[in-house]
């Protein structure tokens, strides 16, 4: 259940639903070649080396690569939050006026206001974050997802035709080159984050038997949670009309109106938004804290960014992150369509995160070879095969991410690829290289003095 709760939200389903029945393939393939390898390999690393991805990659590859890995884990959220809050904005539009879901200025304002509101809440301390985020998965994913699927099934049983073909001829995406399968990148991002649960492997009575079983059970639950709502959207909304930010509410709006229950649309919208915001707040208190810890222990961060408030929250890191996210949010007002902006930021977040996973797989292989006798609470079978499968699939998804998807209309491949590469370099790769190159001995010494700043 921890794995199910950590891998995403219903906002990721519209991007895949545009291909109809083929969305099942786009979920199942990454589940086997990415979700399973990441979960099992991370479990071995977590049971042998505490401290998370920095220590894993630092021990297995090098300290600078460890910094790059932990930075990627943190910086992908800079693209993730605008995409997530763009979905929240599109969802909340159905409380007031659905037409706002396609308004770039409205979306930018929602992203900025909600993100900084999340920073204020997070800065009050971890306990309040835990209370807000604990029920987010149930409120914003499981219950609405079940309602959406239930309404969709009844809709079909009444004899209504599906908006997308549901026959065997549409099980696979039509092949028109790489551009026709780019949406598979969305599934990789949906499954990203499963490694955070690997720390619990030592709590099992028999990790060698129980953990693999739990991962495959979780994979089945994850596929049910995301595949079925994705299909429900495809049943009622034609692919060319699906909004990547408001697609879930488009389906709810259509189904609830069909059943004469349109009064429930605002209630569903608020539930989805609350669930997504709870997840965002939970993430706010995680990657930034990991970066702070490494920045202090290894002296990678300037003293200013090592400061915490009286609740122990890294407010200066969050503020710097918020400044960048505010600039990114403003781009929603200038990108031609909201769906295109959402997709671009989702791809950028995925690209940055995949770098971390490739480094993790390399580290696992090297640690098994260089430290074979190091104590591990869990030792995964076929580690080499899993690392090869996960690493190669991550690299393939990384390359595919530079290709504009055909489902979003004509886009210049060169301009699109350059935009993705620029975001990847400016946010994901150059900063950790500069922090490693420019760090000073005094930065590590400053950690002992970096107490509350009020």
For the biggest sheet, the summary is: none
Low-confidence stretches: none
Spatial shape: globular
CATH architecture descriptor text: Up-down Bundle
Number of strands: 0
Mean pLDDT: 87
Predict the CATH topology: Amino acid/polyamine transporter I
- CATH superfamily placement: Amino acid/polyamine transporter I
The number of helical segments is 18
How many distinct folded domains?
1
Q: What proportion of the residues form beta strands (DSSP E)? A: under 5%
CATH class: Mainly Alpha
Write the layout of secondary structure elements.
Blueprint: H1 2-6, H2 13-17, H3 23-48, H4 53-60, H5 63-96, H6 104-122, H7 126-133, H8 136-157, H9 184-191, H10 207-236, H11 247-258, H12 265-284, H13 287-298, H14 315-330, H15 338-370, H16 383-400, H17 413-438, H18 441-445
Helix pairs in contact: 3-9, 3-10, 3-15, 3-16, 4-5, 4-15, 5-6, 5-12, 5-13, 5-14, 5-15, 5-17, 6-12, 6-14, 7-12, 8-10, 8-11, 8-12, 9-15, 10-11, 15-16, 15-17
Task: Describe this protein with a few key phrases.
454 residues; mainly alpha; Amino acid/polyamine transporter I; 0% strand; globular
Report on this structure.
55% of the residues are buried. It contains 18 helices and no strands. It has one domain: Amino acid/polyamine transporter I (Up-down Bundle). The longest helix is centred in the first third of the chain and has 34 residues. Helix content is 68%, strand content 0%. With 454 residues, the chain is an all-alpha fold. α5 runs antiparallel to α12, α5 runs antiparallel to α15 and α6 packs antiparallel against α14.
